[in-house]
Write a structure and sequence with these properties.
- There is one protein chain.
- The protein has 16 helices and 14 strands.
- By secondary structure, it is α/β, with parallel strands linked by helices.
- The chain folds into two domains: about 260 residues, TIM Barrel, CATH 3.20.20; about 70 residues, no CATH class.
- The strands form three sheets. A nine-stranded mixed beta sheet has the order 7-8-6-5-4-3-2-1-9, with helices on both faces. It has a three-stranded antiparallel beta sheet with strand order 10-11-12, with no helix packed on it. It has a two-stranded antiparallel ribbon with strand order 13-14.
- α6 links the parallel β5 and β6.
- The radius of gyration is 21 Å and the shape is globular.
- The model has no long low-confidence stretch (mean pLDDT about 95).
């Protein structure tokens, strides 16, 4: 289970937005649907997820109906604030969304469609464990309106999967990808690099295996050790080594080179796609700071600068909604300085980059030094945007510090 929720202001029981909040209905709206169930907890994961023995008062077979109660509440809240509009993206994340029957995911999507409407070109993504997807599941998701499937491959090397506590069969990755493709879905695969005991050759083998699947999109994330996880405890006890920063940098460079050679373009530090039309529009909405409503226990939302987050446990979440109350545990309205910092953190990570004009005057002068250090593309800077070089992507935190400190 994830760590503590943020500390914020109390959220009203009816979920109403502040009366002085100005919601712009022309801003894109995304919907995130959190499915918090997993068969096994991976040792590195600190997401808000629960195995069957941890549910204590919540039931998977009732989950879709519970989420639909929050969807109905959200429709009323946004309608009252003048912010009701069709969703441009929908993302089922987790956890393992495909642990639920495909019919439950379809009902949840139908609920979103009925409450908000879906844009004509809406992107609808489902994260999938390779062991839980076959042709019948992919076909049912496609008929429901899903357009994209993200398969959690993580690695093609058995000892690396074991180090991550991943239990899926590597062979089932191809089965899931092919099932999604036959159903007409765009397919993404997710990889993680830097696991204990993973060599550069291991990582190259995983990259080769992923590229052999010819996905439309690929994500490659450096393993981060989160406090409170099994892996953090193992490292603290000296049972496994901590990730090696230099090796992870070599792995990132290997990924970028292999993906570029295969025709994939980077569009965010950890994400590559075959052309701009295959980018994850839902994730880009987060990085660009548009509006989204997160449904489910522990889910976070953002509308017009207001942020809020739901209670964490599925039982508490269900109890709030059964009582006709919002599941929001707290909320906040970041001040201008916080929003400016966040904008630099997020927009500097994407290929379109950060507008130099959005920086305070005393920070714009830092861009020249970043160019000299090989961290920012000179041609893009001349056009008024901070765009990271390959070296800049490896040292993105240093770029953010230079632009904000």
């Amino acid at each position: 289970m994830a760590g503590a929720l943020p500390v914020g202001d109390p959220a009203p029981a009816d979920g109403a937005l502040p009366g002085d909040l100005v919601v712009d209905p022309s801003t894109d709206l995304g919907v995130y649907l959190h499915v918090p169930f997993c068969r096994v907890r991976c040792g590195y994961c600190d997401f808000n997820t629960y195995t069957s023995g941890e549910l204590r008062g919540a039931r998977q077979d009732e989950y879709a109906d519970t989420v639909l109660r929050e969807v109905a509440l959200a429709r009323g809240v946004l309608d009252a604030a003048g912010g009701l509009r069709p969703a441009r993206t929908v993302f089922f994340g987790g956890g393992t969304p495909t642990l639920l029957p495909a019919g439950d995911l379809a009902r949840m999507l139908d609920g979103v469609r009925d409450a908000f409407g879906l844009a004509d070109d809406a992107e609808v993504t489902v994260e999938a464990n390779p062991d839980t997807v076959d042709g019948a599941v992919a076909d049912e998701l496609a008929r429901a309106g899903v357009t994209r499937m993200s398969v959690g491959m993580q690695s093609a090397v058995p000892h690396v999967l074991a180090a991550l506590d991943r239990t899926h069969s590597p062979a089932n990755v191809r089965t899931a990808v092919e099932a999604g493709r036959r159903a007409g879905l765009d397919v993404s695969v997710d990889l993680i690099y830097g696991a204990p005991g993973e060599s550069l050759d291991d990582w190259r083998a995983s990259l080769d295996a992923a590229l052999a699947l010819e996905p439309d999109h690929l994500s490659a994330y450096a393993l981060i050790i989160e406090d409170g996880t099994k892996l953090a405890r193992q490292i603290r006890r000296g049972e496994v080594p901590a990730p090696d920063d230099d090796l992870q940098a070599d792995m990132y460079e290997a990924a970028d080179a292999a993906l570029a050679a295969a025709g994939y373009d980077w569009y965010e530090v950890s994400n590559w796609s075959r052309g701009a039309q295959r980018r994850s529009r839902h994730n880009l909405a987060y990085w660009r700071g548009t509006d989204w409503w997160g449904f489910g226990p522990g889910a976070h939302s953002h509308v017009a600068g207001l942020r809020w987050w739901n209670v964490k446990h599925p039982a508490a979440y269900a109890q709030r909604l059964a009582a006709g109350e919002s599941p929001a545990a707290g909320r906040e309205r970041p001040d201008e300085a916080s929003r400016r910092l966040e904008r630099v953190l997020l927009e500097s990570r994407i290929r379109e980059g950060l507008a130099i004009a959005s920086l305070p005057d005393d920070r714009r002068q830092a861009v020249a030094g970043l160019i000299a250090d090989g961290l920012v593309e000179p041609a893009d800077a001349l056009s008024g945007r901070v765009v990271l070089t390959l070296r800049g992507r490896l040292l993105a935190d240093a770029v953010v510090r230079a632009l904000t400190d």
